[in-house]
Amino acid sequence: MTVRNRGALAALAAGVAALTVAALVACGSQPAGNVGADEATALASTPPAVASGPTVPVTAGELPADAKIVPPVRLVIPEIGVTATVNAVGINEKTNEFEVPPSVDQIGWYRHGPGLEADAGSVVIAGHVDSAKQGKGAFFRLRELDQGDTVTATGSDGEARLYRVVAREEYDKTRIPLDRYFARDGKPRLTLITCGGPFDAKARKYRDNIVVTAVPA
């Protein structure tokens, strides 16, 4: 991951990707409240700091140069009816945004971070909550996940890996601690991100991000 890419994830501070949601005014029912925030924080090797701007800070952990990366290719979340294709994505060079797949029924794995084989760090997968033209996205019901729910991520190696949800948090996009969620160090974990909160029709974006953290079951 280059320094340029570390500073290019404006989408997570200004919206996960450029969502086409102009006709929508809300994001469905709101979550019951944050759960497991302390447990999610403890997974990081260092205390997270609130991001001061739309960047992903440099983290201490680095991927081994000779590591065989196993990208996730399929995600199943029975509790909210998700079975979605996962695409490897990076940063849109023109917009400097996290490039979530344009089809809202598909989701994107941040390919500059750890893969499913990693024994440390955060595997980040982001998806649309909805679209004015396409309707509900794969992560439309992400806000409903609770502690103990399960997520199965299948890698390109064909192995299905089971995760257990430990936290669900909601942040104003200007205050999401990106260093925690994009870290390559700390305990292995799966980080799922989508938009949430009220929709600003004038700005054409949601105010918040919903973040779900899961650990190997």
UniProtKB/TrEMBL annotation:
Keywords (A to Z) from UniProt: Hydrolase, Signal
InterPro entries linked: Sortase (IPR005754), Sortase_dom-sf (IPR023365), Sortase_F (IPR042001)
Highest classification ranks of the organism: Bacteria, Bacillati, Actinomycetota, Actinomycetes, Micromonosporales
UniProt name for this protein: Sortase family protein
Organism domain of life: Bacteria
Range of residues in the leader sequence: 1-22
PROSITE patterns: PROKAR_LIPOPROTEIN
GO molecular-function terms, A-Z: hydrolase activity
SUPFAM superfamilies linked to this entry: Sortase
Pfam families: Sortase
